[in-house]
Amino acid sequence: MTARFLPLYDRFVSAHDRLDAIVTDHYKEMRLAQIDAMHSDGRENAATFPRAAREGTRARAHAAQRRTRSGSHRGEKSVRSTPSSRKSPPAPDTS
Hints:
Distance between the termini: 77 Å
Mean pLDDT: 75
Number of strands: 0
Structural class: mainly alpha
Number of helices: 2
Helix content: 55-70%
Largest sheet: none
Radius of gyration: 23 Å
Low-confidence stretches: none
C-alpha cells in the first residue's frame, strides 16, 4: 500500500505547491492594486501601513533565513534574547 501512496503524495505536494504559488501571486497583485488605489485616492496613511507591514514581514523572513543558515535555530539563543541579559527596572526607593 505504501508503494502506491508515496508517488501520489509526491504528485499532491507538487500540485499543492504550484497552486499555492499561483494564489500567493494573485493575492500580491490584488493587494498592490489596492495600495495603488489608496495612493491615487489621496489616502497616503492607509496605503503606507500595508506596504510597511509587507516590508517588515520580508525583513523578518530574511532574519529567520539568516538564523537558519548560521545554525542559531538549533536551540542556541542569542545573547539579546536570554533573560539574564535583560536589565530589570530599578528597585523603588523605600526610604
